[in-house]
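Entry 14. Structure prediction run on the chain below.
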Amino acid sequence: MKNLISFKLAGKITITIIVLFIIFHILVLLGVVPSNIVWGGQIAEESTVMRHEILRLLVSFIFLAIIIEKLNQNKITKFKKLSNAAFWFIYIYFIITSIAKLALAVTLEKLIFIPVTVILSVLLFRLAIEK
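Output returned:
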């Protein structure tokens, strides 16, 4: 895996995808993107969608901070171990997300976000295996 894509390139692509996710969720909050294409189209109340989107933004920013930290190759051993554990958590989170999206009824979400989360999972795995 290390020979297929470099650590830095995987990091840049991962950050780009996470930033695009953040922009997407902001557009949902602003009403530019219809809320019926997120969360599997299962949430009818606009206030509930907004709460979920705000939570998703917060999670995305935390993931982004952890990814940036990993790319900076922190030399503090205790923090590095925590960072690596958090990174594996993010990787598993995106694997589960990819599997969960298969059950969605919303076709647009399946067509766009399943491939993106699978690609992101592969990139996160590449970053996670870096020492």
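The chain has four helices and no strands.
Filed with the rest of this week's runs.
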